[in-house]
Design brief:
The chain is of the alpha+beta class. The chain contains eight helices and 14 strands. It has two domains: 156 residues, Major capsid protein gp5 fold (2-Layer Sandwich); 122 residues, hypothetical protein PF0899 fold. The strands form four sheets. Strands 1, 4, 11, 12 and 13 form a five-stranded mixed beta sheet that branches. It has a five-stranded mixed beta sheet with strand order 5-14-10-6-9, with helices on one face. The longest helix is centred in the N-terminal third of the chain and has 28 residues.
Length: 330
């Protein structure tokens, strides 16, 4: 059926069809948990930890929700596509479908933009414990002061030859130390936080991508003095899973992050408000609303076009800092 036979309702149907088919950016659900919302602000007081088992002496000791959670405000976003009425008349169906698909892709990848900004600013933005998400002095409850912001002063492996151009062998050492460090992090009851962790995402700037791929997936690494077995490949042989993501929106030049991806909770929170008539087809498109100004409208009369707008009320926030570690190379 040609587009000249379509109504604006049909075009909106194409938007929703594209939203239902959208697969999203693969790293987003690995590092973030999605919560639907029905109000402007949502409070997350669960960002504490369940009590450890104790010997039952006397009465039960209940542990409630934390006081120092976080509040995330939904913010409104839009993207509007104008379609020329003459293109509709001239049957530009294929071209317009491409534009619709591209706008849907932008709406879906918007989560990546929001989360990347959150990650980029994590050394200067507070999470639920009042400290920066990546910080050297997290302290809560019964736990000692802890750091998830690592440098060469913590591990000599982060002191490398060229911090902005690490070799695969150097990155393998760095990533191994960052994973190792994650196992040392404890919750507010001074209990190991990541004892069951076996799946991790390594996020790097694009300039690190080639070396990071080799560091994780090559079985043998060139050291400059010979070849050695890759310890990260050995981890995966024993059931660990490591993924690498080169994030083109990161501006880091000498940093990388490792996130745990198999926890019951995640390092980050996505929040989507359920607007009237919005998509609920899948997590990627949750909360996206499609609106139009089309046939017989003032816009058609004045500007000879139909307008199709995507609208979303959403935001992101910090979850468990214990599930993320930043490494700064020097």
């Amino acid at each position: 059926m040609g587009l000249k036979q379509l109504s604006s309702r049909d075009v909106i149907g194409q938007f929703f069809e594209a939203l239902e088919a959208a697969s999203g950016v693969t790293w987003i659900p690995k590092v973030s948990m999605l919560f639907p919302s029905n109000q402007q602000f949502e409070n997350y007081k669960w960002l504490g930890f369940s009590p450890a088992l104790r010997r039952w002496i006397g009465e039960r000791q209940a542990k409630g929700l934390r006081v120092n959670g976080i509040t995330i405000e939904n913010l409104l976003y839009e993207g509007t596509l104008g379609i020329d009425v003459d293109d509709i008349r001239r049957d530009k169906t294929g071209q317009i479908k491409i534009r619709i698909g591209e706008q849907v892709d932008e709406a879906i990848s918007h989560w990546a933009t929001l989360l990347t900004a959150l990650i980029q600013n994590a050394e200067s933005s507070a999470c639920y414990d009042g400290q920066f998400f990546f910080d050297t002095d997290h302290q809560e409850g019964d736990s000692p002061a802890q750091s998830n912001d690592l440098s060469a002063s913590d591990y000599s492996e982060l002191n490398i030859t060229t911090p902005t151009n690490p070799t695969a062998n150097e990155l393998a050492n760095v990533i191994m130390k960052m994973i190792q460090h994650m196992y040392t992090l404890k919750n507010d009851q001074n209990r190991p936080m990541n004892r069951f962790a076996k799946q991790f995402l390594v996020m790097v700037p694009v300039s690190f991508f080639g070396a990071a791929q080799q560091a994780i997936f090559e079985r043998n690494l060139e050291t400059g003095a010979g070849v050695r077995n890759n310890p990260l490949a050995g981890l995966m042989d024993r059931g660990w899973r490591l993924d690498v993501e080169a994030n083109p929106e990161l501006t880091w030049t000498d940093k990388l992050a490792v996130f745990r991806t198999d926890g019951r909770a995640k390092p980050f929170i996505r929040q989507a408000e359920l607007l009237d008539g919005a998509s609920q087809a899948n997590d990627e498109s949750l909360g996206i609303q499609v609106q139009s100004i089309a046939e017989g409208s003032e816009e058609e009369f004045k500007n000879n076009q139909w307008l199709f707008g995507i609208k979303a009320s959403r935001n992101v926030g910090y979850g468990y800092w214990q599930h993320g570690v930043l490494g700064t190379l020097s």
